[in-house]
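anyone else get weird line breaks when pasting these?? whatever heres mine. first is seq + tokens for prot A
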Amino acid sequence: MESVERLGSTLDDNNKVRPIDSEAVQYYKTIETILHKQAIGAVLDKNDLRFVYEIDGAMAGFEGKKDQRVAEIRRQRNRQADIETLCDCPPENIATDANNITETTQVFCNDTGSKISFVDFREEKNKQKLPQIIEFTKAFKETGSPAHLDVAIEGGIVKLNIDQKTLESLRTYETAIAAYKAADGGSPSYIYDSLKNIPWTEPSSETLNVHILNHDTTTPQERDKMVADMDRAGYRALTFSELVALGIIRPDLNKRNEILNTYEKHILGGVSRVPYLSWDGDERRLSARHSGSDWREHVRFLFVRK
């Protein structure tokens, strides 16, 4: 462990001793332990694998530099076997496709190749969503639409309980926008000015189960078909006021990489547009995009039961 002890301090550009961050020292200790285990053929446990696959977030190593040893460890691993260890359940109880989730599913695993994430249906908050997910999947499979629940985002369903204070703020567009801006005072907000021309209607319910759909790259025709499929299956697009409510209650969702669309069309500036929430650098955005153009990845569609 001599090398670890020496990491307690280092020299800066002026050859002056400065301490190294304690998290960096812990990082070094952890990776050295894992390398040693792998060298002697010892089994990596669940915590080791969470580190290796960066389940809890990307790790920069020392001074912000990516440690290539982590990638090398992954290359030497059996990824599928490691996923089963991480899920801590039999493979038949693991779903990797949202459309294959059933009553016996214990864990949904989303593996993009670069990032692995999980939704554990043994946890009560996710277990409660399982019947809704199964109901939606069965109804939507029959439509033949390529859209599917984005289970990687909180199980694909975000429950919104609109409290009295928020409900009062949603009485008018002006008060709603003020509440939206105040919901995350630490981040600036951009509001598309033409949104004020959308007829304002208050949310029809104080509880919304918002279904988040991934439709990948889409054309206007494909999106229109998806909306028709959703309508036949008993679901409708989130209204504009409900989208604003989502931004007020869950500003963290607004700050994700995905673009969250209602697909409720409105003529704004002489063009058919749909409202959306997004994150642009360090700015929360409430805006609207052209409904007649092709949309690429990162777009998600928000629906609720009619």
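and prot B, same format (seq, then tokens)
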Amino acid sequence: MKTEYDRRADAAYFAFSSADPVRQVKLDDSRIIDHAADGSLVGAEILSPSRGVDRTGLPRVDEIAGGIRALGFRALGAERSARTATPR
């Protein structure tokens, strides 16, 4: 896995493949998953990781969580994310 972090945009990208992404799955406003034409995982984009990252629904969650922690940010579990979420 290759990790890129843009400090100015507060955005991280975790690349699992060098294939071109052709389809995106938006998990929510801060998490987008890229897939190749054959359906394989290309990568995951996390916006505002400095605020903590909800791991729920992320592919290869352990690898991404490790990458998030390596950047110095928090990788929240599903139960903690639900408790700390701001009600709408």
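btw re prot B: Helices lie at 61-70, 78-84. The chain has two helices and seven strands.
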